[in-house]
């Protein structure tokens, strides 16, 4: 699979709360560089978390981005409408013997990890269920024990040699260089969650390929996850975009802005009489 000649950038928020200044920066950054490089800006709604993501937050995303003056082509790709695409990709990995069922609880994983963590700081999975006998796996599956499917990273990397990330830093106009990917530092990541037929890692690489995304611009908090994305692209024979990771917008406490921390929303700023031009004026790209 190859990319189209046009440069295509995407902004892909999760509608599990209201957008804040960090989202505004990322969206405006992406739009700026799409225009500067003669490309296109597309919007995607990443709502695989069907519990926390809600329709009113989707509508709020559209309203907030329109208020900022952004435009995008229709229709907007909404992940929850495309679960079948992710099932096909997961089945392809499963058919190659690269996925295995995991029945461990979070408490069990935390205890077995013995303090070891992945790049996000979460307990790293020790591979417990990778060693389950086939009969025990089948028994648990038939009994309906909650299951998630993990990527056997060691097997996935076997024979692949060194994997590289195509990166343009500090901005998408910079020279594209290759950086070594290190998927092994993540351990056996979840590819199919217990509550949905995909995961963030799987859905974004599938969507980027389907939408022909050539440039991914996103925050530094996702820098390390590119390791897994590049590995999945190789395993699924998908093209790999050029990646640029921009700085995060932080609050007065030097912590990144976050919905879960109650950071001031764009809707809240709008209600205070703040004009979109004032938001845009805060940022330089």
TrEMBL record:
Pfam families: tRNA-synt_1c. Residues 10-263 form the Glutamyl/glutaminyl-tRNA synthetase class Ib catalytic domain. SUPFAM superfamilies: Nucleotidylyl transferase. Keywords: Aminoacyl-tRNA synthetase, ATP-binding, Ligase, Metal-binding, Nucleotide-binding, Protein biosynthesis, Zinc. PROSITE patterns: AA_TRNA_LIGASE_I. InterPro entries: aa-tRNA-synth_I_CS, Glu/Gln-tRNA-synth, Glu/Gln-tRNA-synth_Ib_cat-dom, GluQ/Sye, Rossmann-like_a/b/a_fold. It comes from the Bacteria. It is an enzyme of class 6 (ligase). GO terms for molecular function: ligase activity. Its EC number is 6.1.1.-. Coiled coil: none annotated. The keyword Nucleotide-binding applies. NCBIfam families: PRK05710.1-4. Belongs to the class-I aminoacyl-tRNA synthetase family. This is tRNA glutamyl-Q(34) synthetase GluQRS. The gene is gluQRS.
């Amino acid at each position: 699979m190859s990319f189209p000649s046009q440069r295509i950038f995407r902004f892909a928020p999760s509608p599990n709360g209201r957008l804040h200044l960090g989202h505004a920066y990322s969206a405006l950054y992406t739009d700026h560089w799409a225009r500067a490089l003669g490309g296109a800006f597309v919007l995607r709604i990443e709502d695989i978390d069907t519990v926390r993501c809600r329709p009113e937050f989707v509508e709020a995303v559209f309203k907030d981005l329109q208020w900022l003056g952004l435009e995008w082509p229709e229709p907007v790709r909404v992940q929850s409408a495309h679960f079948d695409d992710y099932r096909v990709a997961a089945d392809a990995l499963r058919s190659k013997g690269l996925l295995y069922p995991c029945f461990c609880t979070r408490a069990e994983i935390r205890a077995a990890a013995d303090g070891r963590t992945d790049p996000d700081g979460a307990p790293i999975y020790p591979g417990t269920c990778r060693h389950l006998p086939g009969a025990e796996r089948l028994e648990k599956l038939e009994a309906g024990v909650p299951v998630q499917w993990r990527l056997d990273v060691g097997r996935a990397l076997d024979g692949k040699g060194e994997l590289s990330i195509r990166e343009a830093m500090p901005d998408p106009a910079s020279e594209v260089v290759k950086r070594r990917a290190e998927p092994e530092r993540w351990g056996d990541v979840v590819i199919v969650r217990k509550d949905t037929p995909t995961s963030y890692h799987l859905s974004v690489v599938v969507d980027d390929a389907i939408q022909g995304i050539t440039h991914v611009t996103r925050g530094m908090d996702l820098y390390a996850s590119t390791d897994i994305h590049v590995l999945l692209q190789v395993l699924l024979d998908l093209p790999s975009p050029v990646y640029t990771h921009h700085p995060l917008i932080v609050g007065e406490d030097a912590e990144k802005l976050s919905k879960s921390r109650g950071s001031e929303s764009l809707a809240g700023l709008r209600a205070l009489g703040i004009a979109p031009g004032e938001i845009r004026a805060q940022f330089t790209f």
